[in-house]
Amino acid sequence: MNAETSLRPADFVYPMFVVNGSNIRRPVASMPGVDQVSVDEAVEQARAARDAGVRAVLLFGLPDSKDPAGTQSCDPGEAVQRACGELKKSVGDVTVITDVCLCEYTDHGHCGVLADDGEVDNDATLPLLAATAVSHVDAGADIVAPSAMMDGQVAAIRAALDSSGHSNTPVMGYSAKYASVFYGPFREAADSAPQFGDRRSYQMAPTQRREAMREIEADIAEGADWIMVKPALAYLDVIHEASERFDHPLAAYNVSGEYSMIKAAAANGWLDEKRAALEALTAIKRAGADLIITYFAIDAARWVSQTG
User: How far is 145 from 15, CA to CA, in rounded Å?
Assistant: First the structure.
């Protein structure tokens, strides 16, 4: 009765990695309990999430082929686009959020197209991100979430959505996204590891807090409806300051490395998985997050429902 912070199933978003084909569930070795799934299996996962009380899913796509510009990202026949349509048809009461980035689709693994010097070309990437976002919404996505950390990406996507008849579709900006070691397992799950270099030239350094506030302000000025901090646990101070400073709804991403650490410790008998996961998720909400993107979403929703 005296709890200042409580978790609800509706606080969680469940991420899924969608591939082409059918009847596919391909386990991700570094993320126990997480699979790459075909569209038909994604529908079943979304149903399980909904039945547990989770009201939203976040889709990442893995194409069959890649190229330097990530052109498959906006193909209406790709896994994410097909999953959007199937989810809205088969599990209509789940909000479908799509990640908008090129890293899963480029053969070099960076989040944008490359200039002649091998660096990511920010401005040349924006039209591709915009086209990808429009293709997702055309297919049925409810919210698009650009994660490429290109300057101006929210504005480019907002303009493209408005001009294509999707002016009411919200944009969830990955507003403060750090160049974090905790993304390691995700890059296996999404097959998106950079083939050379790293992403520190366009993602934020972990040393920066005030810069995060400027990045969030920029996304809001460009038209973001939601803001996000990623990762979550190592950046609870950033989540808290953002929640205090901005009126926009705030998401936090409990990322793959944070998930896998708890899973590994639990597998070795060093931690109680349920208690550790719920303590971490409570900390994220206590810091000020309105929504938590987490691979624990289905399990956590069931746990909090049982204890509630």
Answer: 12
Distance CA 231, CA 238 (A): 10
Catalytic residue among 66, 230, 263, 285: 230
Catalytic residue status for 230: yes
Neighbours of 244 (CB within 10 A): 8
Collapsing DSSP to helix, strand or coil, 2 comes out as coil
pTM summary value: 0.94
Catalytic residue among 66, 177, 263, 285: 177
Q: Is position 274 annotated as part of the catalytic site?
A: no
Topology adopted by domain 9-307: TIM Barrel (3.20.20)
Q: What does the domain layout of the chain look like in residue ranges?
A: 9-307
How confident is the model over 235-259, as pLDDT tens digits? 999 999 999 999 999 999 999 999 9
The residue written with tokens 């479908």 in the block is: 96
pLDDT band at 113 (very low <50, low <70, confident <90, very high): confident
Q: In the structure encoding, which two tokens stand for residue 50, read together?
A: 């909904």
